[in-house]
Amino acid sequence: MTDPHIIRDPAALEALYGAVNEASALKEIGYLHPHYAAFIKASPFAVLATAGPHGLDASPRGDAPGFVEIVDDKTLLLADRRGNNRIDSLRNVLHDPRVGLLFLVPGIGETLRVNGRAEITVDPALLARFAVGDKPPRSLLRIHIESVFFQCSRAVIRSELWNPERRLPRSALPSTGQILAAVTHDRIDAETYDRELPPRLKATLY
């Protein structure tokens, strides 16, 4: 039996929510306005969304504020810093170049959304520009901007994301080692993993 409460077409969805207000429509543009660029320059953290043959991926990306370089008002460069080598996002880009970025700035309610198409470059001159010490990234994403707009602050206000009184101590949730031990049926030892993780992270940031 078909569930009568499931919305299955755009007309029903639009009837439920009503028309888009003027400001929400007009804020989306096809280039990086200087005011939007200011968000990217101030942001130390973004979420990169991609899609590929094996599904979707939303990957956290972060570094010092301005870690995403603005080449011009239609182009961004994002270094692929050292990680776990799953390279899910990069595999997806090879299959489908469409990407989305959500930029956050600590203390600021509004976020910035950038949609576009990406390509992976290993240009030595570009990699050298993004080196930290003697460690360049293995690759960069060159993102060709198609749309940019800010997201209002309602979600951040509701979540109290930047409220220091709402922060949890790390001990309030299972540790990384405990999670790995549980999902691998103890193939990974939780105590050893948790003990070795902090120095390993410090040594492998770049």
Give a topology summary.
Elements: H1 10-17, H2 22-26, H3 34-42, E1 45-52, E2 55-62, E3 68-72, E4 75-79, H4 88-95, E5 98-104, E6 111-121, H5 124-129, E7 140-151, H6 154-159, H7 176-183, H8 190-203
Antiparallel strand pairs: 1-2, 1-5, 3-4, 4-7, 5-6, 6-7
Helix pairs in contact: 7-8
Structure overview:
- With 206 residues, this protein is α+β, with helices and mostly antiparallel strands.
- The chain folds into two domains: 10-159, Electron Transport, Fmn-binding Protein, Chain A (Pnp Oxidase, Chain A); 168-203, no CATH class.
- The protein has eight helices and seven strands.
- A seven-stranded antiparallel β-sheet has the order 2-1-5-6-7-4-3, covered by helices on one side.
List keywords for this structure.
single chain, 206 residues, alpha+beta, Pnp Oxidase, Chain A, 2 domains, seven-stranded antiparallel β-sheet, globular
Task: Work out the strand percent.
Answer: 25-35%
Low-confidence segments: none
Number of strands: 7
**And the CATH topology of the largest domain?**
Pnp Oxidase, Chain A
Give the helix tally. Answer: 8
Give the total of domains: 2
The CATH superfamily title of the largest domain: Electron Transport, Fmn-binding Protein, Chain A
Give the fraction of residues assigned to helices: 25-40%
Backbone shape: globular
Report the mean per-residue pLDDT as an integer: 96
Gyration radius, to the nearest Å? 20 Å
> In what order do the strands lie side by side in the largest sheet?
2-1-5-6-7-4-3
Order of helices and strands: HHHEEEEHEEHEHHH
**Helix/strand class:** alpha+beta
CATH class of the largest domain: Mainly Beta
- What profile does the largest beta sheet have? 7 strands, antiparallel
Task: Provide the CATH architecture of the largest domain.
Answer: Roll
Intertermini distance: 54 Å
